[in-house]
Amino acid sequence: MAEERRGSWFGFGFCGFGQALGSGRGRQVHSPEPLQTPGEDADVCRVSASWSYTAFVTRGGRLELSGSAGCAAGGCRDAWASEALLVVLRAGPGRGAGTELQAWAPGSALSGEPLWAHTVGPEAEGEDAPGGEPQAGALPLLPGARAYVSPRPPFYSPLAPELRARRLELGAEHALLLDEAGQVFSWGQGRHGQLGHGTLEAELEPRPLEALQGVPMAEVAAGGWHSVCVSETGDIYIWGWNESGQLALPSRSLAEVGKTAAGEASGPKEDGSDVRTAEGESGGLAPFIAIQPFPALLDLPPGTDAVKASCGSRHTAVVTRTGELYTWGWGKYGQLGHEDTSSLDRPRRVEYFVDKRLQTKATKM
Fold this sequence. Notes:
Layout: E1 2-5, E2 8-14, E3 28-34, E4 44-49, E5 53-58, E6 63-67, E7 71-73, E8 76-81, E9 86-91, E10 99-104, E11 116-120, H1 122-125, E12 147-149, E13 156-158, E14 165-170, E15 174-179, E16 184-188, E17 203-208, E18 217-222, E19 226-231, E20 236-241, H2 252-257, E21 261-268, E22 274-279, E23 285-298, E24 306-311, E25 315-320, E26 325-329, E27 344-349, H3 351-355
């Protein structure tokens, strides 16, 4: 999703459950449309989109759900939507109860008792940024950056104090952490190369990415089984699974859609990447990459610097310093924001915002 200015949002992609994406007409929105936010004058500061529903939080602390799950609640500071859980940070029950982290079943309408609750101590709350948003701890990272929340037990996981987390992102089976010094750590399952350590092995504890040592990072993002980070100078590094071209590297599935025949695997290269070949239209063998277990530098058009990256399960989006939006990867449901629903193994600019003379802005999502 993209934000044109404070409180103005656009949506595109799958909306088969009636979740608020643009007009909501049909099951897919292929090109960006103004997002149907709750209430005519709702000042939305946070949007968290899961597959079948979307959560909105306003600066006034109101939470609204749209799609397969629907409800409204007050006193909310943040919300994080997943198919397994809806996690909210809200005022605890009773006067002076402080802030409470709550995990709910998405279809519960936040009625009754939460599945799990944890009181966030005053020392972890920190000061709010102008506009009432927490300066640190955007979910799933908690205020104070000392722990994070997961959609699977244990819901609450503490972080080692020395990590000093600035941002944390969760994929389907892995986690990425960016610390205050700009260093990236990863842990979890690694069978698709999503950890970036050059192997397909799992890591039980946060491990720094040696390949990025000495290159301070400003952003991290985790897809289902791939990972992205943006350096302080605007460079993009990407690694993991490339099944749908989400790494912007040649993809076998896209080659097959393009009426090419898969060839025999040539096996992993010395650097660990799984490079294979397919027969191209000219009859020659064209390489494709199934898994990239090391961070690879991704080039956008010359003079284009990235400031923000975001990932879906099998697609990737980047916002540039000049306010342009580039997307690539799996596009079957219009989630890339282009008029067609083709999947792409190279970045393509979303022309809607260029045509409308709008600039996309990076948000704390």
